Amino acid sequence: MYIPFEELRAESRVWVYQGTRTLSASEEQTVTKLLYSFCAQWATHGQPLKTSFRIEKGQFIVMAVDEDFHNPSGCSIDSSVGVLRQIQSAIGVDFLDRSVVAFLLNNQVTLVPLTEIKAAFTSGRLHSNSITLNTLAVTKSEFDLHWQIPVEKSWMVKYLPKTTLSQ
Question: pTM, whole model, 2 decimals?
Answer without folding.
Answer: 0.90
